[in-house]
Specification:
Shape: rod-shaped
Number of strands: 13
Structural class: alpha+beta
Strand content: 15-25%
Oligomer: single chain
Largest sheet: 5 strands, mixed
Order of helices and strands: HEEEEHEEEHEEEEEE
Number of helices: 3
Radius of gyration: 62 Å
Length: 262
């Protein structure tokens, strides 16, 4: 019996030792597995990082490529737009042609205006004003002479008036020897200068009034309602001691005077 007990004890010890060995091996295997897992995880992390880096690099490369493609497309668009600029050039030429046409139209208009101005700057028939031989009334007479509507034409008209009427019953007021020296237009006033011979005229107050009014009516035809009468180019205070000549003479309405024909 003692031998059997010893045998069982030995067997139990062997089993215990075997169990302990198995546990150590299992622990070792577990450590090994854990180490291998750590190694694998490390390798996997490295591979994943490399994959992520590669993917990032590829995305950057793609972005760069897309940027280059977009830049290339922009350049292509610019190049495509260049012909549009060239196409617009004819429009500029057309505008230039239109401007030239407008300039020609303006020139033609200006020429037409000048032609109209030339037509309207001629007084077809100068009206002359004379008094009757009693110095009581003033009559108007169509001379039938055309003159230009300027200072030269006004001086010519004054010389026609100074020559006297051809109708019976009408007289001129100024004696022989009196001349018209000049006619000038300044601002809104006509200036008519007579020679000093006019100072020897004996007209009386009514005759002097007719004389100044006749001169004013003559200038009224040239667009001047106010006339300054000068003697030898100078302004004088009065004419023959009766008529005040210090201020311009205003013309009356020519239609107020009767028209006398030949």
């Amino acid at each position: 019996m003692k031998n059997v007990s010893k045998i069982l004890l030995v067997f139990s010890l062997l089993l215990l030792l075997a169990a302990c060995g198995t546990s150590e091996n299992a622990a070792g295997d577990t450590n090994n597995v854990s180490g291998e897992n750590n190694t694998m995880n490390t390798e996997n992390s490295a591979e994943e990082n490399e994959a992520v880096n590669d993917a990032t690099t590829e995305e950057e490369v793609l972005d760069e490529d897309e940027g280059n493609i977009n830049a290339s497309e922009s350049n292509n668009n610019v190049e495509e737009n260049e012909p549009e600029v060239e196409e617009n050039e004819p429009e500029v030429e057309e505008n230039t042609m239109n401007d030239s046409t407008n300039d020609e139209a303006d020139i033609n208009t200006a020429e037409d205006e000048n032609s109209n101005t030339e037509e309207t700057t001629t007084l077809d028939s100068v009206t002359l004003f004379f008094s009757d031989d009693q110095l009581l009334e003033t009559f108007r007479v169509n001379s039938g002479t055309s003159v230009s509507m300027d200072e030269s034409g006004a001086e010519e008209a004054m010389n026609l008036w100074l020559a006297g009427p051809s109708q019976d019953g009408l007289v001129k007021l100024l004696p022989e020897g009196v001349t018209v020296q000049s006619v000038e237009f300044k601002d809104d006033v006509a200036y008519v200068s007579f020679s000093q011979d006019i100072e020897t005229t004996n007209l009386g107050s009514s005759g002097e009034l007719m004389f100044t009014q006749h001169v004013a009516l003559m200038m009224n035809q040239f667009g001047y309602n106010s006339t300054m009468i000068l003697i030898d180019g100078e302004e004088v205070g009065e004419l023959l001691g009766h008529m005040d000549l210090s201020n311009p003479i205003s013309a009356q309405n020519p239609e107020d005077y009767e028209l006398m024909n030949e």
